[in-house]
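Lecture 7 notes: from sequence to structure.
We start with the chain below.
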Amino acid sequence: MIIETDRLVLRPVSHRDADQLVELDSDPAVMRYVTGGASTPREVIEEWTIPRAVAEASHRSGAGLWVALDRLDLVAARSVGHPEPASSFVGWFGVRAPRHSSESEFELSYRLCRSMWGRGLATEGARALVQQAFDDRGVRRLFAGTMAVNTASRRVMENCGLRLVRLHDCADTSITGSERGEVEYEILRTDWESSAFPWAHAARTSTHLIA
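Predicted structure tokens for the same chain:
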């Protein structure tokens, strides 16, 4: 399923995205609060990240990993008959069912190229996936987590209607700021159905790029 917002087109990840995902995870600034700046090996992305996302999307409605593309770049390229340009790559957004949870819940995650930071794109894409997750009537809870010191990511969660519910010890104590721990935010279906979110229903879904 393709998801469109005002500035983004989100399409399901595929094996052709490996190069861009490897490049994204090779930026120490992008990976600062994930691995302490260490890059993700190509084989992990090709043999685990992408196959797992493709498999989950085929087995669980609403779950998956979406590559985010700049809508204007994509429209411009398609208008002259060009394929999807590499310059349109913004990053990725994902929702998945935790492997060891018996709850009806999804975990939200996202990762954007450093050049795309500070433009509100993370919030725009994440909001679209919050809506996508709760379109599945069986999902009771959506949550997201990050390091407590990652204020930019926490702001995205808050802008999507999630609220802080838990603090955890940081699993990797070698990362700068780990002594502050990790935070978990959530939004429940009851919150989604009882609260007014002005941005809800702004995203559009289709089966083709640029509907």
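Points to note: The mean pLDDT is 91. Residues 6 and 205 are 12 Å apart (CA to CA).
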